[in-house]
Amino acid sequence: VAARMRPMPVSSPRLSLSGDAHTCREGQHGGMLIALLALLGVDLIVILVLLGIMLSRRRWVSHQPGAFKGAIRVVDGEVPGLRTKWQRGYGRWVREVLVWTKKPMLFRNELVAVDGLAGEARAAKPGEVKRVGSDPVIVPLAADGGARVEVAAAGDDRGRALGALAVSAPPPSR
Fold it and tell me: What are phi and psi of 7, to 5 degrees?
């Protein structure tokens, strides 16, 4: 049996480390290539499913009644789940409660109980908040516990950002 087995020279032109299937010896790496593609195929399916879930969630959140795209931050005090830096997401009002859905995954909702306006709505300064739309408007809100938050939204979404508070709010100051 040992007489039939010939050692293959290392410098053989049929061996290649480049992964080219045509330069491999007959079927030597074919099984590994199939296993690698199967593994990549499974991972690709998982990625596609997660992407589909995320896109459908974003569509569902953005199509809720009164939903608006914007950013939120805490100015004074503490609000659980929110930070002092601008966080993008989608907001909508349920009576006196602002429901904020955080980006990028849109799976976490933060509830902000609002007592009323903490000042006048104002136009955002250039570069103050990004990616909320054209002519951003900042709405200061007084939250429960003495906290103050600011919500930024596109100028077209000003009414949605104010929610039920829109009746008593004057137009934004420039």
Answer: -70, 140
| pLDDT digit string, tens, across residues 24-67 | 555 556 567 556 656 777 567 777 787 888 889 999 999 999 99
Distance from the Cα of residue 43 to its chain's centroid: 21
CA dihedral 47, 50, 56, 59 (to 10 degrees): -90
Per the DSSP assignment, residues forming a β-bridge with 112 are 98
Contact 23, 15 (CB under 8 A): yes
Q: Distance (Å, rounded) from C-alpha 14 to C-alpha 22? A: 9
Of the candidates 149, 168, 162, the one whose C-alpha atom is nearest the C-alpha of residue 68 is: 162
Residue 166: what residue type? A
Tell me how far apart the alpha carbons of residues 10 and 167 are, in angstroms, rounded to a whole number: 83
The secondary structure element, H or E, covering residue 75 is strand 68-76
Task: Report the predicted TM-score, pTM, of the whole model to 2 decimal places.
Answer: 0.69
CB crowding 113-136: b at 16 or more within 10 Å, else e: ebeebbeebeebeeeebeebbeeb
